[in-house]
Design brief:
This protein is of the alpha+beta class and about 290 residues long. It is about 30% helix and about 15% strand. Among the domains are: about 30 residues; about 140 residues, Pathogenesis-related Protein p14a (3-Layer(aba) Sandwich), CATH 3.40.33. It is built from eight helices and twelve strands. The strands form four sheets. A four-stranded mixed sheet has the order 9-11-12-10. Strands 2-1-3 form a three-stranded antiparallel sheet, with no helix packed on it.
Length: about 290
């Protein structure tokens, strides 16, 4: 018959306290397995193969009376809450099967379903073109600097429509072999540079420098170039519509210092028009 410590359960060959594991001074008799019975106890040789086992009795742990945390030894305080009171209880495995059950993918994903649905909706809006990806931070061309004056409409004239009208007027002045397209990426680059010039001139601002490649132009490996023109002689109040106003701007470009670049040598152009607070017309012309 073997003995075991009543505190930690360590088996001992003899009833010879204290326990070599925890130092406790009380042992109790322990029921041994059938294959550990000696020849004198069972009538069989110790080398015989055991075919049966016997119950070794319940296993015990030490549970905190405050939080229920189980400990292998009676070694207060509790490692979880610090309580000094531990009590001896029988170890059970209730709920073990439930804890070991693998949850389904639906159970795992259920808390995240609203987030996944939102992401799917955003992707659908982008895919169908309802929302432009350029609305997302870091996607699309840089936002033009804030500049005083008017950059969208002035004196009832749509400046963006006038910019395309200027392109049409310039196309009419070019030879058939020198035709060029209006590039939205170049126009966005021209708008950024033009507003930056106005902001520096009238607000003492310091706009962030940008690269033409950030504006999604279709120039390929060719680096766009551009230049500003201040057309003080043009008064937007004297023109009745975008057509007359565009003709005046086109004439100013054709008679400026970069007339040659306006007429030939490039494949695409972009134009931005901004009316400054003092009424001067700021025009930025970009080509590639």
């Amino acid at each position: 018959m073997k003995w075991r410590c009543t505190r930690c359960g360590k088996p001992h060959a003899r009833n010879d306290p204290p326990c070599t594991a925890c130092g406790h001074t009380t042992f109790e008799r322990a029921v041994v397995r059938a294959d550990e019975v000696t020849e004198t106890e069972s009538g069989q040789s110790p080398d015989s193969t055991a075919t049966e086992t016997v119950d070794t009795g319940p296993e015990y742990v030490w549970a905190c009376s405050n939080c229920g945390r189980q400990h292998v030894r009676n070694s207060p305080p509790c490692s979880r809450c610090g309580s000094p009171d531990l009590e001896k209880v029988e170890q059970t495995y209730d709920g073990l099967e439930r804890d070991l059950t693998t949850p389904s993918w639906l159970d795992v994903a259920r808390p995240y379903l609203p987030i996944l649905a939102g992401i799917g909706l955003v992707i659908a809006l982008f895919a169908t073109g309802v929302v432009s990806p350029s609305m997302l931070p870091g996607i699309g061309p840089p936002t033009p600097p804030d500049a005083p004056g008017q950059g969208a409409e002035a004196a009832g004239i749509d400046l963006e429509a006038a910019e395309r009208e200027v392109h049409e007027r310039l196309e009419a002045e070019r030879n058939s072999g020198e035709r060029r397209r209006f590039d939205d990426g170049l126009a966005a680059y021209a708008e950024y540079q033009n507003r930056g010039l106005v902001a520096v001139e009238f607000d003492d601002a310091e706009p962030t420098g940008v690269s033409p490649g950030e504006f999604g132009h279709s120039c390929g490996d060719v680096t766009p170039v551009g230049a500003p023109l201040v057309a003080s002689e043009i008064s937007i109040d004297s023109d009745d519509d975008e057509g007359a106003f565009a003709t005046a701007v086109a004439d100013a470009l054709l008679s400026s210092r970069f007339e040659e670049a306006v007429r030939s040598g490039y494949d695409a152009e972009g134009i931005d028009i901004h009316v400054a607070p003092n009424g001067d017309l700021y025009v930025f012309y970009a080509v590639c």
